[in-house]
Amino acid sequence: MHIAETSRMSTAHTQRPVANAIRSACINVGFLYVTNHGIPEETIQRALSASKEFFSLPLNKKMELDIRKTPNFKGYNSILSSNTDPLNRGDLNEGFEFGWEEIQARDDDEKRANDGVMAGANVWPSDLPNFRESVLSYYHAAVNLGRKMFPLFALALDLPEDFFDDKTEDAAANMRVLHYPPQTGPVDDRMIGIGAHSDYQCFTILWQEPGVQALQVLNKQKEWIDAPPIPGTLVINLGDQFARWTNDVFKSTLHRAINRSGVHRYSIPLFFGTDYDVKLEPIPSCVSPERPSKYEVVTAGEYVKERLKATYAH
Ligand SMILES: O=C(O)CCC(=O)C(=O)O
Ligand SMILES: [Fe+2]
């Protein structure tokens, strides 16, 4: 899999080779690793510690924040309460999900959170005073990285680099902290850490705990290939919104996670898409008589909402 040096993204003449590397990764595998991503290790470690602390709360405390109590899937999902692969029986992970929020509360937070199809404010554990700030610090750092990625994806598609600027004004970005207990003994493929799925937004920025293998990607030969954690890198993988924008020129690849490591595993995906009110219309250069438009046009918000509903309908 490709490794893109994000530190080389900053100036126009060095962007082209990076964009070319991204183009080839997006067309062929839909997964890449980025180095020099700019998120301080300390920020990662604080988010990780906060997430471990959260997951070690008693189940009844965590269930107070049950993701099904909020209109748009903010809060806690317990083990086996989500199911990303409809053929499976549930995901062996617990998670906590939230969306955009300033670290310093602002007057219009509530209005922003309650606007539009994905409306719904975040919920936070009252017993862990540092949790919110620790995970939001990582969130904002990862959103900044995501903002740098959009111009590169635009260049990779031979579009002007500002193509996504007016479509990504409000970060439509959801983050999860995830905990996968180890699976021992024979593992039934229908009940694993997270079942085979493709992600819902444009791309995902994924931090995986070093030293613990679990993530796998389906290759063109339909074999599951390990995507191991590489210290100092993040995984970036494409989601279905990009498949829609590009009429499947960019691949949103199936992936899954199985934790057979014998130890608990933690990961932090952040799902980044265009603004929720933006229509997912195919980019004209990706449509031709040989490649007719494949998808019905819906807004990003409607799309994400439907996918989340299906995941938690289980
Ligand atoms: O935990 C992982 O490595 C993958 C998580 C994932 O695929 C997801 O949450 O969509
Ligand atoms: Fe995923």
Observed structural traits:
about 325 residues, alpha+beta, eight-stranded mixed β-sheet, four-stranded antiparallel β-sheet, binds 2-oxoglutaric acid, binds fe (ii) ion
What does this structure look like?
- The chain has 314 residues and is of the alpha+beta class.
- It is 28% helix and 19% strand.
- The protein has seven helices and twelve strands.
- The strands form two sheets. An eight-stranded mixed beta sheet has the order 1-2-10-7-12-5-4-3.
- Strand 8 (215-218) and strand 9 (224-226) form a beta hairpin.
- The longest helix is centred in the middle third of the chain and has 26 residues, at 131-156.
- The radius of gyration is 19 Å and the shape is globular.
- 2-oxoglutaric acid binds at residues 176, 178, 194, 199, 206, 208, 214-215, 255, 257, 267, 269.
How big a fraction of the residues is strand?
15-25%
Give the beta-strand count: 12
**Poorly predicted runs of 5 or more residues:** none
In round numbers, the mean pLDDT is 90
Q: Which distinct ligands sit in these coordinates?
A: 2-oxoglutaric acid, fe (ii) ion
**Largest beta sheet: what is the strand line-up?**
1-2-10-7-12-5-4-3
**Cα separation of the termini:** 33 Å
Alpha plus pi helix count? 7
The structural class is: alpha+beta
The helix-strand sequence is EHEHHEEHHEEEEEEHEEH
Shape: globular
